[in-house]
Amino acid sequence: MLIYQPEKKDRIVLNDEFRFYRLDEAHFAQGAVVVVDVLRAFTTAAYAINAGAEKIYPVSSVEEACDLKAQLEDAVIMGEVDGRKPENFDYSNSPAEIARLNLSGKSLIQRTSAGTQGIVKARNTEILLVASFVVALSTAKFMRQMQPSQVSFVITGQSLGRDGDEDLACAAYIGALIHEEKTDPEKFLSRVMSSTVGKAFQSGDLDYLSKEDIQLSLAVNRFNFCLPVTEENGRLVINRYKF
């Protein structure tokens, strides 16, 4: 059974094997680092890869995204600022929108308020992946294959006044899968709607988050690939690693 042991600085430690960090602590993450964003950055990224995108370049700002698009051929930008698509972006941070597209041959640039910030902050690591429920099992398989000495999770939802429990639940599920592949996901999935974001959605306070976005984000283990992050010509790139 997974037991959480909060420390004085609100960092969450799972026994001695897994360490959990808030977004503002991401630069402390060591070993194999999994940056988690369920609603919605890395759910959207997974659907984009499944829709044929060759790679995704995560960036921290709108300006960086636009500058990079000007440098790359056949690139498009997806993402958000405060949940909403900026005017100069091609697509929003919506798995429902992205899942309907044919992105074959496209390179994507992604900027979000939490998820991509976690990648940028945690880039000095041994192994780096991004994750959500739709790639949870493949992420765990990758970790079992790599056998790192330390696994750290960055809970990007623990920012902007949110509790991030949807991301914490996903990270805990991945941790459980590392030990036991047949772990029941239901008790972890149920925490998405009881999280700060889940409650705000149910109350109607988040009109940019659709019911379909939620449904696609809860499609646990939908894809048979995980999303490692590598560096290419000095740029971070989210790739596909298929099982």
What does this structure look like?
By secondary structure, this protein is an alpha/beta fold. Helix content is 33%, strand content 23%. β10 and β11 form a beta hairpin. α6 runs antiparallel to α7 and α7 packs across α8. The chain is globular and about 45 Å long. It starts with a strand and ends with a strand.
Q: Number of domains in the coordinates?
A: 2
Number of strands: 12
The major pleated sheet works out as: 9 strands, mixed
Low-confidence residue ranges: 1-15
Separate helix tally = 9
Strand content: 15-25%
Q: Brief description of this entry?
A:
The chain is an alpha/beta fold and 243 residues long.
Secondary structure elements and pairings:
Blueprint: E1 4-6, E2 12-14, E3 18-22, E4 32-36, H1 41-50, E5 55-59, H2 62-71, E6 75-79, H3 95-99, E7 107-111, H4 115-121, E8 127-131, H5 136-146, E9 151-155, H6 165-179, H7 186-194, H8 196-202, H9 211-217, E10 225-232, E11 235-238, E12 241-242
Parallel strand pairs: 3-9, 4-8, 4-9, 5-7, 6-7
Antiparallel strand pairs: 1-2, 2-3, 8-10, 10-11, 10-12
Helix pairs in contact: 5-6, 6-7, 7-8
